[in-house]
């Protein structure tokens, strides 16, 4: 029977010399001298019995606030799935395929180190998702600076293709921003405007 115990402990306490207390969910604060043996015992028992045991990293800001955590989940949460479908316009991300999205796919497979995060996910039709699993295919998801999400796919023949998420409604490609120019004559109350193209 799977059991999850949420024990929050700093890396300095777990692996270093700090004696800061830990927090055991459902119980409260426990001393460092109890937290370290709990983690060690769970990892040793998992190694001996074959039970899945892991530590989930939780990241904190310099001020102590929790900001993010890693995930071992292969199943995309419902809310994230909606985000991917919306980001990808409901259409398969494979170039020249206009089939509706049926699968939310890890661009880099979980077995190859891919994570269940927005950057590594793409919407694919069923056929393209299965084709991508064939030997020799690789894909990576990424966000270029100030750009839309992209997935770079390399085929077994060595050809590389880049799929870019469609633009949001109402946005030019690339986005243009309105800049206000100071009027030449201070008595002129009307400012002049011009569009600045990000690609320029």
What are the defining features of this structure?
200 residues, alpha+beta, 3-stranded antiparallel β-sheet, 4 helices, 20% helix, 25% strand, disordered C terminus
What's the arrangement of secondary structure elements?
Elements: E1 7-8, H1 11-15, E2 22-24, E3 28-30, H2 32-49, E4 58-60, E5 66-69, H3 78-87, E6 103-106, E7 121-124, H4 126-132, E8 138-142, E9 150-154, E10 160-164, E11 176-181, E12 192-197
Antiparallel strand pairs: 1-2, 2-3, 4-5, 6-7, 8-9, 9-10, 11-12
Explained architecture:
- With 200 residues, the protein is an alpha+beta fold.
- It is built from four helices and twelve strands; from the N terminus they run βαββαββαββαβββββ.
- The protein has helices at 11-15, 32-49, 78-87, 126-132; strands at 7-8, 22-24, 28-30, 58-60, 66-69, 103-106, 121-124, 138-142, 150-154, 160-164, 176-181, 192-197.
- The longest helix has 18 residues, at 32-49.
- The radius of gyration is 24 Å and the shape is elongated.
The average pLDDT score comes to: 77
Strand portion, in percent?
25-35%
| Percent in helix | 10-25%
Shape annotation:
elongated
Strand tally is: 12
Low-confidence stretches: 175-183, 187-200
In short, what is this structure?
The protein is α+β, with helices and mostly antiparallel strands and 200 residues long. It contains 4 helices and 12 strands; from the N terminus they run E-H-E-E-H-E-E-H-E-E-H-E-E-E-E-E. A hairpin with a 3-residue loop joins strand 2 and strand 3.
